[in-house]
Structure formats: C-alpha cells, structure tokens
C-alpha cells in the first residue's frame, strides 16, 4: 500500500486538497517532516495510463514535472512529490498592489513562455516517431470543430437554456468551420493542451525545482499548433493581461520559437494566435458550462464573462467573421 488508509494509522496525516476541473482527487500526506501528494482516480493499467506515459516522456525530455514516487494502478493511486500550493496564478494575485507589480507580472509570464518554448522544442520528434499516444492525436479540423460543437451544446443548452434552431446553430457553426480549417492547416508541435496559470506550479526555492515553474495536468497532450498553448496562457480565462502586454509577450515567444523553426512569419503567426484565441476561449466556455450542466458545479461560471469578452475582442480583428461576432454577442448578452 502507498499510504495507510486511516489518517491516524502509521503516523500519517492526510488532508484533502482542492481538486482541478477533472474528477481526480488529491490529498496531502504528511509523515514526520516529509510531505507528499496523493492522486486518486479510477483504477488504471499502469503500462497504458496516459498520465504516466506523458509524465515519463516529458521527464526524459527535461521538462520540469512533479516526481512520481509510487504507483498502484489497481487502486487508482499515484504518490508524487509535494510542490506546495502556490501556482503562477497565486503568485500573480499575491503580487497585486506591489510597487513593482508590472515587472513581477512580466517576469512571470516570460518565464512561462521560456518554459513553453522549451516544452515545444524538447518534445520534437522525427516524422513518424510516436513515443506516447498523444503523437497520434492532433488538433485537426475534426477535433477543433468537435470542441466548437461541445460548446454550442453546453453554453446554449446546459447554461443559457436557450434552444437554438437548426438554422441558428448553422449560422454559428459555419464560420467556425472556416476558422478550424485555417487553424488545422498550420504546422504542429507537441502541445501541453491546458497550459495556463493554474497548471504551472511555483515551488519554494531550495526544493528540487529551485523555485522554477513546473508543469502539471499534462496528460491530454497532443499535436497542435504552437498558438494553442500560447493562447491558453496569454488569453487565460483566469487572468486578464492588457492587450499591449499580450502582444509584447507574443513577440517574446515568437523570437524564442524562431530559433527552433526557421521561416515563421511574424505577422502570420500573430494572426493565427488571435484566431486560435477565438477557438480556444470558445472551448473553455464549453468546459465551464459543461461542469455546470453535468455536475451542477457553478465554480467556473464566473470566468465565462471574461472569456466571452476575449472572443468578442478578437473576432473584431477579423472582418470576415463580423456576422459570427454579432450573433454570439446577441445570443449571450440578450
């Protein structure tokens, strides 16, 4: 057994932690001066469990991830190192009001983008080589459009309780088909898929990660365009950056990526970033409203408004999607 099953047994102290948006449960396990985190989920086959496969691949590639200390697939448990409670989002919140907040904010986001650029470059593999199942999966047109349909179902059905006619659904879906087609045609890298301020831990200095950002929640990684992860972090539903800073940071990442991938055009890259932000934010709204509809979990509903505003602002940069912007605005706000 990884741990005693009772808090009093064997000198263990066990405390339930706030979970993520999944059904996984997390516990802090203290034993003397040692501290660990236990993840509990449904039983799984260790040799084919995505969390373990992706973790081991990323660890070998040099991407900072939590150390896995013990695994019992039959019990659905993984014991891993304790990175503490401080996420990048927590650090940003704590810094609010500081005289040098702008410098702290910029430094944190630049660190996250250096890590992202390293993630994309260190996981690159020759064509045809597929070290983990995610290399056989991609944000192709079908997958991107599936995410759009998912959001249409849950935003208008589960949350707004607004029945859309077939014609209304097609008026939303048709321009998104074009958006997804354009995005799917872009070159692909191995993406984290959920790269944002809540999925970047900031352990204390002096730990094995020496106070540097560490990736978590990477089990759904798959192939996609660079802008997918970039939109996730810079157009984060949980944290709003000024548009001026967003584009300064896009430039910062672009210069890092250009070292690895020659021939990237800056203007086109920025345009695809804005377009990816529309689709990525739309999918985030689908996730938030599905939690509400499926699990009666309203915790994420408060992020829908900011995320919707991101979509409206970015669609305004594409005259060809003017009607989509008007439709979404009308259906959501009225």
Structural description of this entry:
The chain is of the alpha+beta class and 334 residues long. The chain is built from ten helices and nine strands. A five-stranded antiparallel β-sheet has the order 1-2-3-5-4, with no helix packed on it. It is 48% helix and 12% strand. Strand 1 and strand 2 form a beta hairpin. It is globular, with a radius of gyration of 21 Å.
Reconstruct the topology from this structure.
Elements: E1 12-17, E2 25-31, E3 34-40, H1 50-61, E4 68-72, E5 77-81, H2 88-95, H3 101-122, H4 141-159, H5 166-184, E6 189-191, E7 200-201, E8 214-215, E9 222-224, H6 226-234, H7 243-258, H8 266-295, H9 304-315, H10 322-333
Antiparallel strand pairs: 1-2, 2-3, 3-5, 4-5, 6-9, 7-8
Shape: globular
Mean pLDDT over all positions: 92
Number of domains: 2
Q: Runs with pLDDT <50, length 5+?
A: 4-8
| Rg on CA atoms, Å | 21 Å
Q: Determine the CATH superfamily of the largest domain.
A: Aminoglycoside phosphotransferase (APH), C-terminal lobe
Total number of helices: 10
How helix-rich are the residues, as a percent range?
40-55%
Name the beta content range: 5-15%
Output the strand order for the largest sheet.
1-2-3-5-4
Query: How many DSSP-defined strands?
Result: 9
Distance between the first and last residues' Cα = 55 Å
* CATH architecture designation of the largest domain: Alpha-Beta Complex
Task: Assign the CATH class of the largest domain.
Answer: Alpha Beta
Structural class: alpha+beta
CATH topology of the largest domain: Aminoglycoside 3'-phosphotransferase, Chain: A, domain 2
What is the ordering of alpha helices and beta strands?
Answer: EEEHEEHHHHEEEEHHHHH
Major sheet attributes: 5 strands, antiparallel
């Amino acid at each position: 057994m990884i741990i005693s099953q009772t808090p009093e047994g064997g000198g263990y102290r066990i405390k339930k932690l706030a979970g993520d948006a999944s059904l996984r449960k997390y516990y802090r396990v203290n034993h003397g001066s040692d501290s660990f985190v236990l993840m509990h989920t449904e039983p799984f086959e260790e040799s084919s469990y995505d969390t373990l496969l992706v973790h081991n691949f990323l660890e070998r590639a040099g991407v900072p991830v939590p150390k896995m200390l013990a695994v019992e697939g039959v019990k659905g448990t993984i014991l891993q190192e304790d990175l503490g409670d401080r996420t990048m989002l927590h650090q940003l919140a704590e810094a609010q009001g500081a005289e040098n907040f702008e410098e702290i904010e910029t430094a944190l986001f630049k660190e996250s983008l250096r890590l992202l650029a390293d993630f994309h470059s260190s996981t690159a593999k020759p064509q045809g080589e597929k070290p983990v199942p995610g290399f056989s999966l991609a944000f192709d047109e079908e997958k991107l459009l599936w995410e759009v349909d998912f959001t249409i179902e849950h935003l208008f059905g589960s949350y707004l309780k607004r029945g859309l006619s077939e014609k209304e659904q097609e008026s939303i879906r048709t321009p998104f088909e074009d958006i997804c087609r354009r995005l799917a045609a872009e070159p692909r890298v191995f993406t984290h898929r959920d790269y944002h301020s809540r999925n970047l831990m900031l352990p204390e200095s002096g730990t094995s990660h020496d106070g540097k950002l560490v990736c978590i929640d990477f089990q759904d990684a798959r192939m996609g365009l660079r802008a997918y992860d970039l939109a996730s972090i810079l157009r984060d539903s949980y944290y709003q950056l000024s548009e001026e800073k967003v584009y300064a940071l896009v430039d910062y990442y672009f210069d890092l990526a250009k070292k690895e991938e020659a021939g990237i055009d800056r203007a086109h890259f920025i345009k695809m970033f804005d377009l990816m932000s529309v689709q990525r934010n739309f999918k985030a709204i689908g996730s938030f409203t599905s939690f509400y509809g499926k699990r009666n979990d309203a915790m994420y509903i408060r992020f829908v408004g900011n995320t919707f505003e991101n979509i409206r602002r970015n669609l305004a940069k594409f005259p060809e999607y003017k009607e989509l912007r008007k439709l979404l605005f009308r259906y959501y706000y009225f």
